[in-house]
Amino acid sequence: QVQLVESGGGLVQAGGSLRLSCVASGRTFSRMGWFRQAPGKEREFVASIRWSDGITRYLDSTKGRFTISRNNAKNTVYLQMNSLKPEDPADYYCAAAPDGRYDFWGQGTQVIVST
Q1: How far is the C-alpha of 67 from the C-alpha of 2, rounded, in Å?
Q2: Which residues face 18 on adjacent strands?
Q3: Half-sphere exposure in the Cβ direction for 108 (13 Å, CA)
Q4: CA 95 to CA 24: how far, in whole Å?
Q5: Start-end of H helices in 14-62
Q6: Which burial class, exposed, middle or buried, applies to 107 when counting CB atoms under 10 A from its CB (0-12, 13-18, 19+)?
Q7: Could you report the per-residue pLDDT of 49-77, keeping only the tens digit for each?
Q8: pLDDT-derived band of residue 100, with 50, 70 and 90 as boundaries?
Q9: Do the beta carbons of residue 107 and residue 6 sit within 8 Å?
């Protein structure tokens, strides 16, 4: 049974940092990513990492502020979020792709940015 368990969300002041974690179990994946959804908005891609070689991709507005990384031994992917802005608050979801599509999703973790 595949499980993705996120943690690390919370309340932070604008300009602050948070690190999200996602532990995957049940199988291996070719790619893992983070998505977010703010109230009243559609879910959007934030970042992804290819498990084999660590190649990453980012939403343009997060480049230079967010860093996605992985720990192969712990089957965990991280999203380090620095310089958080008022437009970053959302429910953040970890997702995993066995091949090209994100078929598995975590339960989400909330990020709140105070100004």
Answers
A1: 25
A2: 81
A3: 12
A4: 9
A5: none
A6: exposed
A7: 999 999 999 999 999 999 999 999 999 99
A8: confident
A9: yes
